[in-house]
Specification:
The protein is mostly helical. It has helices at about 1-15, 15-40, 50-65, 75-90, 95-100, 105-140, 150-175, 180-205, 205-210, 220-225, 245-270. Helix content is about 75%, strand content about 0%. The mean pLDDT is about 85.
């Protein structure tokens, strides 16, 4: 197992796309933080400036690039591409044969890829999050605005959790189809287009309209709840409408786990 981990660690550090994607995520986090923090500071005290609620949430908003407020967590999608390429390069360039020759245990290879990508993605999210909130602190702390609140730290934990789960799901699907291009396209097409089309159909078609609440169980609709500021409150249920973030975690995590198990079973049975 140690050899598999060492092998995968060397591989992820010697692929240029790893640094390009990580660097792009870091730059994007900084740009959003600068734009939001500067805009808020410039309009403090104005009638159309940030409200007290906005100022309370500025840390989590900046740290997650507004995924906390319901936007797609773009950094997670960028970093999930590292996991896709971790499997995709193996099949695209035929390197999987060399990998399995050097490391005969397919289980060790599979586990090592997931562990190394998990560490890389988690650390990258933490660095980007802390960098973004640090920029906000530099802009707004002198105005008496608290950036590092309990909500900020909780949002960081959820951001890491969502990014890791998304990376696992992307890796599992790449292992299933053994085609990185198809996975890269579907990674963005499914949450940004397909799920929206399905939701629209349920809302517009009379025979389906009464069942429109079922769309909250779509993978990314549920997964997106992990990052939002929805908390348990009296009267809320785990899978209510809207779904709590824990309910979203259960749905998205279950789908991810099922895809991972299937990909492992096929990886151990298929020819390289």
């Amino acid at each position: 197992m140690i050899d598999a981990l060492r092998y995968e660690w060397i591989r992820i550090r010697t692929v240029r796309s790893t640094y390009w994607l990580t660097g792009l995520a870091f730059v994007f986090a900084l740009l959003v933080a600068v734009a939001v923090s500067w805009g808020m500071r410039a309009t403090l005290g104005d009638a159309d400036g940030p409200t007290s609620e906005d100022l309370r949430e500025v840390g989590p908003w900046v740290g997650t690039q507004f995924a906390r407020a319901g936007a797609p967590y773009f950094l997670a999608f960028l970093l999930a591409m590292i996991g896709i390429l971790g499997w995709g390069h193996e099949y695209r360039h035929g390197m999987v044969r060399a990998t399995l020759t050097a490391l005969p245990s397919r289980l060790h290879v599979w586990v090592a890829k997931y562990l190394v990508v998990t560490v890389w993605v988690a650390v990258s999210v933490v660095v980007c999050y802390l960098a973004g909130t640090a920029v906000s602190w530099l802009f707004l702390s002198s105005e008496g605005i608290a950036i590092y609140t309990s909500e900020t730290w909780e949002a960081l934990g959820r951001a890491v959790l969502y990014a890791v789960l998304l990376s696992w799901l992307a890796m599992a699907f790449t292992g299933l189809v053994r085609n990185q291009t198809a996975t890269l396209v579907l990674l963005f097409l499914w949450p940004l287009a397909i799920e929206n089309v399905i939701t629209l159909i349920f809302f517009l078609v009379p025979g389906l309209r009464e069942h429109s609440e079922l769309t909250r169980f779509l993978p990314f609709s549920a997964g997106g709840r992990i990052n939002t500021d929805m908390f348990f409150a009296p009267g809320e249920t785990l899978f209510g409408n809207p779904m709590t973030w824990v309910g979203g975690l259960v749905v998205f995590g279950s789908i991810t786990l099922l895809a991972m198990i299937t990909s492992l079973l096929l990886f151990r049975r298929r020819d390289a």
